[in-house]
Amino acid sequence: MTAMDSTSGTAPRRHFASDNNAGAHPEILAAIARANQGHVTAYGDDPFTDAARGRFREHFGPQAEAFFVFGGTGANVLGIQAVTLPHQAVICPEGAHIDVDECGAPERFTGCKLLTVPTADGKLRPADIERHLVGIGFEHHVQPRVVSISQTTELGTVYTPDEVRTLAATAHRHDLLLHMDGARLANAAAALNTDLRSLTTEPGVDLLSFGGTKNGLLGAEAVVFLNTPAPAHFKYVRKQGMQLASKMRFLAVQFDALLGGDLWRRNAAHANAKARRLAQAVRNLPGVRVTQKVEANAVFAVIPPRVITPLQQRYHFYVWNERLSEVRWMTAFDTTDEDVDGFVAALRELLA
Amino acid sequence: MTAMDSTSGTAPRRHFASDNNAGAHPEILAAIARANQGHVTAYGDDPFTDAARGRFREHFGPQAEAFFVFGGTGANVLGIQAVTLPHQAVICPEGAHIDVDECGAPERFTGCKLLTVPTADGKLRPADIERHLVGIGFEHHVQPRVVSISQTTELGTVYTPDEVRTLAATAHRHDLLLHMDGARLANAAAALNTDLRSLTTEPGVDLLSFGGTKNGLLGAEAVVFLNTPAPAHFKYVRKQGMQLASKMRFLAVQFDALLGGDLWRRNAAHANAKARRLAQAVRNLPGVRVTQKVEANAVFAVIPPRVITPLQQRYHFYVWNERLSEVRWMTAFDTTDEDVDGFVAALRELLA
Amino acid sequence: MTAMDSTSGTAPRRHFASDNNAGAHPEILAAIARANQGHVTAYGDDPFTDAARGRFREHFGPQAEAFFVFGGTGANVLGIQAVTLPHQAVICPEGAHIDVDECGAPERFTGCKLLTVPTADGKLRPADIERHLVGIGFEHHVQPRVVSISQTTELGTVYTPDEVRTLAATAHRHDLLLHMDGARLANAAAALNTDLRSLTTEPGVDLLSFGGTKNGLLGAEAVVFLNTPAPAHFKYVRKQGMQLASKMRFLAVQFDALLGGDLWRRNAAHANAKARRLAQAVRNLPGVRVTQKVEANAVFAVIPPRVITPLQQRYHFYVWNERLSEVRWMTAFDTTDEDVDGFVAALRELLA
Amino acid sequence: MTAMDSTSGTAPRRHFASDNNAGAHPEILAAIARANQGHVTAYGDDPFTDAARGRFREHFGPQAEAFFVFGGTGANVLGIQAVTLPHQAVICPEGAHIDVDECGAPERFTGCKLLTVPTADGKLRPADIERHLVGIGFEHHVQPRVVSISQTTELGTVYTPDEVRTLAATAHRHDLLLHMDGARLANAAAALNTDLRSLTTEPGVDLLSFGGTKNGLLGAEAVVFLNTPAPAHFKYVRKQGMQLASKMRFLAVQFDALLGGDLWRRNAAHANAKARRLAQAVRNLPGVRVTQKVEANAVFAVIPPRVITPLQQRYHFYVWNERLSEVRWMTAFDTTDEDVDGFVAALRELLA
Asked: Which chain C residues have a beta carbon less than 8 Å from that of B238?
């Protein structure tokens, strides 16, 4: 990976590597600037944090308790730690962010083992949960306690409210909690044209990692307790877990700006629309095969190996599966039609 | 602790609770806004991060390797983990930030035990190190590996370069590394009118937690390897340690702005000057006894118990030692003469 | 699981649940009694421990360094911890003892993630290693460092020296170490009629958990460094890892007795022979299908579901896979021909 | 430390280094031999373990739940882990076994910080507990949850039942649990001529590490829940904590033999009597000053530096405090009058 052309003389260009390659939405920076007045108590005992916590109650229901943290790995690890003991286990799809993108942090810091299930589309099914319900009560085995799903999934697909409801029911029937890694929850809600609650609290998600960074924040995530109460000791978990910001107002105010109006949906819907535009444009190109449903802001496609490197020299993106010549293209809140069209033109040219 | 008056109608006021109750310096916000252009690779492979790492080499010497993290606890824990194994130990003053303000994170995540020494002024002496050099090679005992000092100390005092040099020599003679928790290193350098290198790399500090948040950043800290090389695996330590920012440019650019010119020194010198002004003004008030040397941006004082609560109703600050009626007043980069004078007037009035 | 008939009036009977359901070989108790003379220094600085460490050098080569521990889980965890950092990973077959029978201790205490591969016979192949060599150098991914195999496998099969050599070469080519969980290494050596070195040090095993308990000891295991030196700090790993026995002589003398003559081979060969006898007798029974090669002291078989419970009422054994109606029968150093024949008669009767 | 003369031609001699330098009492070996009959279910589901657990109920009350483990460090760590979360803390005397003799295992595996208090005689007082009750509810501070005392103390002194009761009351008043490291509880009970319950369950000890190894066992310890129930998940804590013996009967039967009759008291009273004999004989020797009350089986004394090494060449013992020329002499269940008298004669000769 190399730095992109943002420092060259040309106008900055949006790439397709990841939604976290984007910057922050201007409204977020404006909110930060507005909060930058005088002294407030550090570590979250301030009016900005109160307000932002209120936004989460508006969106997720009055019982929702949100705790702001620095990053997504921290959100996942702290949330899971809050509801588990080290001999327990987390059932999740193979390739989940907690499984392959957090450098083993979940296992190391919670002690819990991850029990994974291969999936074709990134989505867990009830039978996948039941497959791991063996050795219950047997002291030699880790004991499943949490089911973790990602919304949107790592493959850009989206769980419907009914699918979430079925998973929650299955989990609860076996005394498990349902955790949702919602790093891109906004994209899922925009895709389904629902509010946030209909995808989380209502269908039974107990515990949510709510992502802001990939949806236009400067950098902030939240651990949100929905259908399970936040343990009284969670504040210590966050502090000991190295995720307590001293100047908390600057994390909180980002969420206030994101969730106070419809910025969360605007940003997500925009990114989703650009992915659809991209998918539509490439779908019929010779040698290109889109491999996953394009439901949110990711396009997975198999393309001829020979075009990958030349295309990467013009636009940054990742090879997802080298063996299959499968690539991932992601759009962001700031992707423009011109970015998409320029990219498609470059691809078409290389394919010719 | 309660939120302060920043949301009331009156002009925002600077308090004396902590330098992390201040906001961000306007130049920092401006730098963030400038970096908010187009896409760059996430996680630090971007030109802003390269530039900021270069700033650390300018200030600390060509071998300095800086890694940016979210917070101070993370910086301390990751730095110590980088150079220790779990059966080892860290010698530090009783009351060090790692000892009492990080909710046990250092022990939990490094495995290392802290071996503490009581001090009158927050400063460790060579004999304090040697006191803990027992049971070396004995498998039942933890094995000291790191000496950790804070600059400035938790009591607002400052180590001279010679003091640091002597501690480093003592540590190295016993095959220990010297770690500096430099959450307020800038204040120390401003106090001594030295550059940063003269307090760290030159006298032999191996490993530094460099603080930005308390010196006017929005929020960013750095683990800096000075006289010991960064282990090749440190990038994994940071990621697994939940301290790797995806939009790294926004952490990095803050350091670029802080260290690129003299903002670091202006901010620190300003805070120090306000503490001196405060100390001078209260020193001769009846019933007030300043208890530590005022070398940087903290004033510790014993005041009559009866005035504490009424004073706190007007200005926020912490009681340091309830039994002794000792309080701590801290100044920040944004404290004004009016803030100080208003505070002193309030105190004088209550004492009368 | 229920206690068996050892306290009833009838003569004690050997069951087929596990080789750790057996007691200790009389020569082991005799050795313990002989060592029970006067005072010796605790924690292993004694002549019995010296002698036992020498036995390991005789069997595994002059560079072999053995450390005695209480149990098998401790041996695996400490050995792996000795050669890894928490961001690294261990490649092993799905269903390995470290994967499913140690309640997550390896992940919790080493921090390392286990990367598993499904196998039909419990044996890892070189391609299984290579499948997990992705994301090397990528900080978001755990980094493989150890390949772990069990000898005999959890399915009673045995790696040949050549198979071990190929795995070791593959591991070493990718800068990985080869760990062997040798809880039943003696059974493998007896099965192949080799010495211990030919299965371990010679073909390139770096690190061994050597099992004694399942081969007739009262209770003792060893971490043995073969082709990688014991780290200088391993004594601290053992102590901090809660595996340092104060009356070490009583662990050590068991190994001296086991390895000083041919007791290790006698016990293992005896158990293997009884498993062969059992397999041969049941192989042609109607409704019985032996599912794995019977190479050591375990017989895996599918039997009609209706006979399982009645058979378990007479002899203790475990159902391995309920869905497949697959059971596991294990023999031990003390299993007699009468035990086997009585068991077979009972099975035949129930099948009729 | 060097191995002692047990392998030389002379009759084995008892030294004064530690009670864990002794072997096992013959009645213990006999009990192990009796249990070595046939197969029983591994991991504790056997009649021997049932019987031993019953012995603990006889001695400590019907609610006592005992779990057998390999060693004392394991007992302390697992017991504390069972009742804490990683952000909590344990208050104990400086120099407690958990503080200085377990290589940091308590911190590493429980996550809890130890909050220590210096003492003159190894005994904690109520004020020592209260000194650490600061920062309660403050997320930056670890939260005290357990008070841990050793009976007998590391300095050979003994808490009376009233002293324990007062500590328990203080702990409970502040919502803390009282843990007792009873590695030498039998010696305390013998010294005070009480039963075991009067020193533990009755005065309010919640959680006990019961020591067997130092009182004549081959090697076994127990975690015993007295006034707090064993958490339902404790069996997983033990297994994951690498302290679950497969041939559990051999641990259990040792406790059955120790506690079934009066062997526990005979062994402890014997050791205590020999320490008294030793203390009485040396007390009036010129240059010898006994520094702690000799209440159990340890004698602490200052002796002239010049005699230490020559005396150690004849009898093994440890220097406790090199600076003070203070040594520790411990007696065991097998120490004879001849051992004591020979040792005193040697000391007298060297002093002359």
From this structure: 139
Q: In this structure, what CATH number is given to the domain that contains residue C291?
A: 3.90.1150.10
A8 CB burial (10 A radius; 0-12, 13-18, 19+): exposed
Mean pLDDT of chain B, nearest integer: 95
- Shared domain for A35 and A94, answered yes or no, is yes
Mean pLDDT computed over B5-12: 46
Q: Does C198 share its domain with C268?
A: no
Measured CA to CA, the distance from residue D283 to residue D279 in angstroms comes to 6
Question: How many residue pairs from chains C and D have C-beta atoms closer than 8 A?
Answer: 213
Count of domains for chain C: 2
Same domain, C150 and C203: yes
The pair of three-digit structure tokens given for residue A266, joined into one six-digit string: 């605007």
Tell me if D2 is assigned to some domain: no
pLDDT at D5 over 50: no
Kindly state whether residue B230 falls inside one of the protein's structural domains: yes
Same domain, D191 and D277: no
Min Cα distance C106 → chain A (Å) is 9
Evaluate whether residue B7 is within a structural domain.
no
Contact B301, B327 (CB under 8 A): yes
User: Could you tell me whether strands A298-302 and A289-290 are parallel, antiparallel, or unpaired per DSSP bridges?
Assistant: antiparallel
In a shared domain, residues A235 and A327: no
> For residue C146, what pLDDT is reported?
98
Find the Cα–Cα–Cα–Cα dihedral B92, B96, B101, B102, rounded to 10°.
-30
Q: Of B259, B293, B311, which residue is a domain's last?
A: B259
- What whole-number distance in Å separates Cα of residue B106 and Cα of residue B115? 12
Same domain for D74 and D181: yes
* Amino acid identity for residue A102 in this structure: E
pLDDT tens-digit map of B108-135:
999 999 999 999 999 999 999 999 999 9
Do B112 and B182 reside in the same domain of the chain?
A: yes
Q: Could you tell me what percent of chain D has a pLDDT over 90?
A: 96
For B217-237, the pLDDT digits (tens) are 999 999 999 999 999 999 999
User: Computed over its alpha carbons, how large is the radius of gyration of chain C?
Assistant: 20
Q: Which domain holds residue A202?
A: 26-259
Q: What is the pLDDT of residue D3?
A: 35
Q: At what angle do helices B47-60 and B249-260 cross, to 10 degrees?
A: 40
- In the structure, what pLDDT confidence band is assigned to residue A11 with cuts at 50, 70 and 90? low
Q: Residue B220's domain is classified under what CATH number?
A: 3.40.640.10
The tens digit of pLDDT for each residue in C181-226 reads 999 999 999 999 999 999 999 999 999 999 999 999 999 999 999 9
Suggest the residue from C76, C112, C113, C130 to mutate for an interface test with chain A (most A CBs closer than 10 A). C113
* pLDDT at D1 (0 to 100): 30
Whether A134 contacts A141, CB under 8 Å: yes
Q: Which tens digits make up the pLDDT trace of C222-271?
A: 999 999 999 999 999 999 999 999 999 999 999 999 999 999 999 999 99
Q: Which of C18, C41, C104 lies at the smallest CB-CB distance from D42?
A: C18
Tell whether B134 and B242 lie within a shared domain.
yes
- CB-based contact (8 Å) between D29 and chain C? yes
Average pLDDT on D26-50 reads 97
In a domain, D15, yes or no: no
Where does the pLDDT of residue B4 fall: very low under 50, low under 70, confident under 90, or very high at 90 and above? very low
Give the torsion sign (CA, C112, C117, C121, C126). negative
pLDDT at A7: 39
| Interface chains of chain B (3 or more CB pairs under 8 Å) | A, C, D
Task: Please check whether residue D233 touches A, CB under 8 A.
Answer: yes
Partners of residue B85 in chain C, C-beta under 8 Å:
233, 236
H or E stretch covering A193: none
**In which region does residue C213 sit, left (phi positive, over 0), alpha (psi from -120 to 50) or beta (all else)?**
alpha
Chosen domain end from A229, A259, A289: A259
